[in-house]
């Protein structure tokens, strides 16, 4: 198979920026440059052409381990550049030994994340000659046949969701005998979605002698159990486990459900929020909220499981191009979207899992930028939010509701034996005409 054409390098530059740009830290530590890893000249040419110079902390630690062909278990928060930390060594290996064969398999939980990773490979494919195919469900018969043919012809890198890859493996004979690297990306999410058995079935088809890399945003017991099954004497890396980026200004409002739509309208009236994602836990809420926003003249689109794949891709492309200013979605997009410049994330409700909070708000403040994350907390979600604050080891600032809103609920989560109600700052305080609305990076 021939590598895809070069224009994708520039079309996907914002994606690659997110994956590779150094996330600034307040430290005097010398930054490791990509030229110090000993990559092939073609890969270095690609990095140089795109203006990438310094590695992120996860890349500094993971790339040398992967280049030594050791197994690895790595825990890093979203937005740290972990995708590039495994893609660059894989692409380097292919550039040094180009063959039409399946060299690497990358398994991910969602089609959105699969497409995002494939776009990054496309950009570097122009320089390294690496080929790839994105294997996911939800498409038409033509897409399925294209995936099947690419696998049979020896595409270098397969990026796949477990369910669709199982379907391909069940319907034909594919040669994975030359496979060198297996990557499980967002492994915790795949286990949460019930993919354990599919993962183990896929792995049973792969060569015993291979390099296995497991990347996860969290490190619960089930991830360590999986690691023991598939990794051999792995190196272990932990980078900022379950902590939001320092560039995110986290805020919260205490509201009753009937106040949420009016509060969203008030927040979105701030012109500094040019690109916004609103998360809701149910697709019914996504549909209803999107309809309300469109009625008020907001360029909003809903993103949920009822959409066809072509509709999803169209919405995402328009959001990236800033033709859609507000994306309303469920957690299906909390890990599968890599876009620099999202200024605001709103949690319309508190996510049920504290880890999901980290992933939701991690859509902003990517690639050394800043952003704002606002969470609506009703009277029923306070215990959930208290668990989030314990996880991130930080008390999120509770803002007073804007002038004209009636008082919201008190913040009184039940934390162990401490069941005493605490007054919150959420009072209907009189604000001056010049009072600032919440702004990105404030």
TrEMBL record:
Q: Does the keyword Nucleotide-binding apply?
A: yes
Per the UniProt record, the source organism is Sphingobacterium allocomposti
The UniProt annotation puts motif Q motif at 32-60
Q: What is this protein called?
A: Superfamily II DNA/RNA helicase
Q: Which family does it belong to?
A: Belongs to the DEAD box helicase family.
Q: Where are the transmembrane segments?
A: none
| InterPro entries, alphabetized | DEAD/DEAH_box_helicase_dom, DEAD/DEAH_RhlB, DEAD_box_RNA_helicase, Helicase_ATP-bd, Helicase_C-like, P-loop_NTPase, RNA-helicase_DEAD-box_CS, RNA_helicase_DEAD_Q_motif
A Gene Ontology molecular function term of the record: nucleic acid binding
């Amino acid at each position: 198979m021939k590598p895809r054409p070069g224009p994708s390098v520039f079309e996907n530059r914002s994606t690659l920026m997110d994956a590779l740009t150094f996330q600034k830290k307040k430290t005097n530590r010398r930054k490791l440059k990509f030229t110090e890893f000993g990559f092939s000249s073609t890969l270095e040419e690609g990095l140089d052409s795109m203006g990438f110079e310094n590695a992120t902390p996860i890349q500094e630690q993971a790339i040398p381990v992967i280049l030594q062909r050791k197994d690895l278990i790595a825990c890093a928060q979203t937005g740290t550049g972990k995708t590039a930390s495994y893609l660059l060594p894989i692409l380097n290996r292919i550039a040094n030994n180009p063959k039409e064969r399946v060299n690497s398999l990358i398994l991910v939980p969602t089609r959105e994340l699969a497409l995002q990773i494939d776009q990054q490979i496309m950009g570097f494919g122009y320089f390294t000659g690496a080929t790839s195919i994105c294997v996911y469900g939800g498409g038409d018969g033509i897409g399925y046949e294209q995936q099947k043919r690419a696998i049979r012809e020896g595409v270098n890198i397969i990026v796949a969701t477990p369910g669709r890859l199982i379907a391909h493996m069940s319907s034909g004979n594919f040669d994975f005998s030359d496979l060198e690297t297996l990557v499980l990306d967002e492994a915790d999410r795949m286990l949460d979605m019930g993919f354990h058995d599919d993962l183990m079935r896929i792995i049973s088809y792969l060569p015993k002698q291979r390099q296995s890399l497991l990347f996860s945003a969290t490190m619960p017991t089930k991830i360590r159990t999986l690691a023991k099954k598939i990794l051999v004497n792995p190196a272990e890396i932990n980078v900022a486990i379950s902590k939001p980026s320092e560039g995110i200004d986290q805020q919260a409002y205490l509201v009753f459900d009937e106040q949420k739509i009016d509060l969203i309208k008030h927040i979105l009236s701030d012109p500094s929020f040019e690109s916004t994602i609103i998360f809701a836990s149910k697709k019914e809420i996504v549909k209803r909220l999107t309809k309300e926003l469109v009625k008020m003249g907001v360029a909003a689109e809903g993103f949920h499981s009822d959409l066809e794949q072509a509709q999803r891709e169209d919405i995402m492309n328009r959001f990236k191009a800033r033709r859609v200013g507000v994306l309303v979605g469920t957690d299906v997009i909390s890990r599968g979207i890599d876009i620099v410049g999202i200024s605001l994330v709103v949690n319309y409700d508190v996510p049920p899992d504290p880890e999901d909070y980290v992933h939701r708000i991690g859509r902003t403040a990517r690639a050394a930028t800043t952003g704002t994350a606002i969470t609506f907390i009703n009277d029923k979600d306070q215990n959930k939010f208290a668990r989030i604050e314990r996880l991130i080891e930080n008390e999120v600032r509770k803002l007073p509701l804007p002038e004209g809103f009636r008082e919201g609920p008190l913040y009184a989560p039940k934390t162990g034996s401490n069941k005493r109600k605490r007054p919150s700052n959420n009072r209907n305080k009189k604000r001056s005409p010049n009072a600032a609305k919440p702004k990105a990076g404030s």
